[in-house]
Backbone:
């Protein structure tokens, strides 16, 4: 009778142990140039999960990246890929919400190089009647910084725009806001020029020459 009780106790302990075991999964994929389809090495891959975990890795020489040991508690993940001399836009960002138990998943990226010459038109949008930008402005500034640091002959015109529906003219303040941020990032002010345009929809356009 004592042996039977001990056996039952052992079975219960084993069942409890299995019930507390967490499952894990991984996210992996390839990163390519959107134009040439060349595999890109040394891309910075950042993952943020629904539980607040932040993990960062780099792609290898074959363009592969892998983030493993993700607990099944992380049912939502957000991934962003950045690389010098490449744009940071929606092509670089993906998110997944698992409806059931999370599982190993492949997420591939094709990212766009910053153009080497000609007009370059990243846009920073501002709040209505305000010189305060929306939350995505940092991505645009990073693209401009990468280009200006990589191609030293380029000069940049920062154009402040005003929506035709706006009642307060914030063109000058908007252009100056961007101008000052770029200087703080280490860009030579002699390469920057401020200009304004009347009654246009876009908040700012940057022209390289």
Residues:
């Amino acid at each position: 009778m004592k042996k039977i009780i001990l056996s039952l106790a052992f079975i219960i302990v084993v069942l409890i142990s299995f019930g507390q075991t967490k499952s894990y999964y991984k996210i992996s994929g390839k990163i390519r140039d959107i134009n040439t389809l060349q595999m890109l090495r040394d891309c910075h891959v950042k993952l943020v999960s629904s539980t607040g975990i932040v993990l960062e890795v780099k792609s290898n020489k074959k363009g592969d990246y892998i983030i493993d040991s993700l607990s099944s508690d992380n049912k939502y993940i957000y991934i962003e890929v950045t690389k010098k001399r490449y744009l940071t836009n929606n092509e670089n960002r993906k998110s997944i919400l698992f409806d059931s138990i999370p599982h190993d998943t492949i997420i591939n990226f094709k990212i766009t190089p910053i153009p080497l010459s000609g007009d370059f038109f990243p846009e920073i949008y501002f709040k209505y009647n305000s010189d305060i930008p929306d939350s995505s402005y940092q991505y645009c500034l990073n693209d401009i910084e990468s280009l200006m640091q990589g191609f030293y002959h380029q000069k940049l015109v920062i154009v402040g725009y005003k929506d035709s529906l706006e009642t307060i003219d914030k063109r000058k303040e908007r252009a100056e806001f961007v101008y000052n941020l770029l200087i703080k990032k280490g860009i030579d002010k002699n390469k920057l020029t401020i200009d304004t345009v009347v009654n246009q929809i876009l908040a700012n356009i940057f022209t390289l020459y």
Q: What stands out?
A: The longest strand covers residues 24-33.
